[in-house]
Amino acid sequence: xxxxxxxxxxxxxxxxxxxxxxxxxxxxxxxxxxxxxxxxxxxxxxxxxxxxxxxxxxxxxxxxxxxxxxxxxxxxxxxxxxxxxxxxxxxxxxxxxxxxxxxxxxxxxxxxxxxxxxxxxxxxxxxxxxxxxxxxxxxxxxxxxxxxxxxxxxxxxxxxxxxxxxxxxxxxxxxxxx
Amino acid sequence: xxxxxxxxxxxxxxxxxxxxxxxxxxxxxxxxxxxxxxxxxxxxxxxxxxxxxxxxxxxxxxxxxxxxxxxxxxxxxxxxxxxxxxxxxxxxxxxxxxxxxxxxxxxxxxxxxxxxxxxxxxxxxxxxxxxxxxxxxxxxxxxxxxxxxxxxxxxxxxxxxxxxxxxxxxxxx
Lengths: 178, 173
Description:
- The complex is a heterodimer.
- By secondary structure, chain A is an all-alpha fold.
- Chain A has two domains: 2-132, no CATH class; 134-178.
- Chain A is 81% helix and 0% strand.
- Chain B has two domains: 2-102, no CATH class; 106-172, no CATH class.
- Helices cover 83% and strands 0% of the residues of chain B.
- Chain B has helices spanning 2-17, 26-36, 42-54, 59-102, 106-134, 138-153, 158-172.
- Chain B is flat and about 55 Å long.
- Chains A and B meet through helix 1, helix 2, helix 3, helix 4 and helix 5 of A and helix 1, helix 3, helix 4, helix 5 and helix 6 of B.
């Protein structure tokens, strides 16, 4: 089990280019769909927590999943799995490959990879939206979030805090009026 | 020794105060590494960003490993990488511990019901951001569109999608 956890997050760490949200599709595939370690709702909650806490999303997720599965030892193993590939790759680049940085083939490969990364993230939105059972109010909240981020570049932290407080207020009010 | 200690404290700060992950960390890294400690020049920092963009893994960890190595060799890269992840690990462990306890509180459930659609919006806006750099011509739109179809409806594995896309990129550009 420990090895499976380590190996899963090692793969996640090794194949997510671009960092941050680019990691979500792969984490979702491995953790929610393939291994069933988290429910979709739980996965969304971790993303929210990762958003309001400091640090890389992948590290936050691996720590949480590891803790949930096998306590503190599990969280350390998963987190180590996530960071080890980047660590080793960067170390070998800085020691051996730094001199080849202006390479045309590498440029071309990345011209192809970038649209794939965009496609991956769009598909994560599609899959998450589908399993969330979207209704009009959820779509409206998501749309307002996009507009706020794209339009006035507000920090996600504020949007999450307002949504949490607003939602608590709404349900509290609803409960009182039954 | 003092250099290692400075490296550790610098990256502890970077790990502890950068919310949102990814690109949100860059301004803080830049300030600590260039302005405060003078460990590298602006142009060296830009070169590092280019490499970090092209390699897998979280940007903060890649930068920490890279800068740590430049400042103090392999030991430096270990110290910086450890320091940058330490705050997240501690904070998430605390949250995971208490979240289990309050899981049945209606307030926690209500809060998350409001937050989930926001997270969906955040990811959508991230994909819009990535699209601006990714879709530069007709070929890239085609690659993205076809891959979206296979990932969403035919269960194409993300890793395979990236390998295929890289190969196509090398062939068609």
